[in-house]
Design brief:
Low-confidence stretches: none
Largest sheet: 8 strands, mixed
Bound molecules: zinc ion
CATH class of the largest domain: Alpha Beta
Helix content: 25-40%
Number of helices: 15
Length: 406
């Protein structure tokens, strides 16, 4: 830590979590972790950083290497019109460094108050994620219906695991039930057993269920159009969650991206297994989707989080914007609830000691400027959701990693 970084800080409003706000509040941190927090006068000289200090956002599902791919943008089209466009755009830049795309994405995360991200890494960008100033879970993507290709992707991902640091950890992402060999699931379960985070796109569309369970619908044609050999255009012919359960994947630190088509019995299955779901409102709007089970997930006590997905469908890497769009889709949920999903929800789904400003949690927070005097916690969460609180500084591991230019 640089000698100029204050380790005792205070704020007019210190948001510990969606449940507890101190006014005024103080916080002491050391070696990247929070040591103590309290209300009122601090027991030690402390630096006043700003009006509001709150946990940074945890983006639980991103594709940073798609931050720079305008040709793949989805704009009101169907998933099946968009998918080949994305694959063509990705193939056109194969062999190019993902650097500018990932770096652009990271800059956007920091300036919008995100301190941790789970990034599906399809471009071997783990070095960039490891060097990034925010907390990253690099989910090495395993994609392919070909068993040997899956196994080779696992070998590469396993070799990267040794490079984990305090801020970066290496996880895994078998892509989706329609694009992953079942053998990959057994290998992914070994990662979970060893404590790593594993995430998969599951039940994003109704067509995915039709293909997975009955080998029907447009997925077969889409796979053939992408050049997948006929012998590999085969589905699991089973309910996706049953296959995941048999493989040993339904356990904590496994998470599902999207899950729009989850049925009630599957929601109950996830609750029992303590598997979380990541909702990506921007992507939902891009594809004009009608279904997602947020109310049922909440009623069943399933942990849920927010993700931006890739910019090509997610529209913005600002998690507050995702929360606003989510609030538009679910007007019954309070700003406090969206703040919780964007912070503690992401940390719970990913299994990170983040998302709350409490002793032993990581020292990751955002200093916000308030545009108007705030009278209570509800006003803070409303101003946060509106985007009225301006990000002044972003801190990760007890260090300033972004300061807003004024
Ligand atoms: Zn995704």
């Amino acid at each position: 830590m640089s000698s100029g970084t204050p380790t005792w800080i205070r704020a007019d409003w210190l948001v510990l979590s969606a449940e507890r706000v101190l006014h005024p509040g103080w916080l002491h941190h050391a070696e990247g972790r929070i040591v103590a927090v309290g209300e009122g006068a601090p027991p030690h000289a402390a630096s006043e950083l700003g009006a509001v200090i709150a946990p940074g956002c945890v983006n639980a599902h991103a594709h940073l290497d798609l931050s720079d791919l305008p040709a793949g943008r989805a704009e009101g089209e169907s998933f099946f019109d968009w998918l080949p466009k994305l694959v063509r755009a990705k193939r056109a830049r194969e062999g190019q460094e993902p650097q500018s795309s990932v770096e652009r994405g990271i800059a956007r995360l920091l300036e919008t108050g995100t301190t941790a991200v789970a990034d599906v890494d399809a471009s071997d960008a783990s070095e960039l994620l490891r060097a990034a100033p925010l907390r990253t879970v690099g989910l090495g993507e395993v994609l392919g219906l070909d068993r040997e290709r899956c196994e080779a992707a696992f070998e590469r991902a396993w070799a990267r695991r040794a490079s984990s640091t305090e801020r970066f950890e290496s996880g895994l992402s078998p892509h989706a039930p329609y694009s992953t060999h079942p053998e990959a699931l057994r290998l992914a379960a070994r990662w979970l057993e060893s404590g790593a985070a594993v995430q998969m796109h599951v039940l994003e569309t109704p067509e995915e269920r039709a293909w997975c369970e009955r080998e029907e619908g447009p997925f077969g044609e889409a796979l053939r159009a992408l050049g997948v050999p006929e012998a590999l255009c085969r589905s699991w012919r089973a309910k996706p969650l049953e296959v995941l359960e048999r493989a040993g994947l339904l356990r904590p630190r496994f998470s599902i991206a999207h899950g729009n088509e989850l049925e009630d019995d599957e929601v109950a299955q996830l609750a029992r297994a303590r598997v979380g779901v990541v909702f990506c409102p921007g992507t939902h709007l891009s594809f004009a989707r009608e279904r997602e089970p947020l109310d049922r997930l909440r009623a069943a006590g399933v942990d849920w989080a927010l993700g931006t997905d890739g910019l090509v469908t997610g529209r913005d890497l600002d998690l507050r914007a995702q929360a606003r769009w989510g609030a538009g889709l679910h007007p019954g949920l309070s700003p406090r609830c969206w703040f919780d999903a964007a912070t503690r929800g992401g940390a719970r789904v990913l299994g990170l000691p983040a998302g709350e400003l409490l002793p032993d949690r990581v020292a990751d927070w955002v200093v916000y400027e308030a545009p108007r005097p705030l009278r209570n916690a509800d006003e803070i969460f409303s101003a946060w959701l509106e985007g009225a609180l301006a990000v002044r500084e972003t801190w990760v591991g007890g260090r300033i990693v972004h300061r807003c230019a004024r």
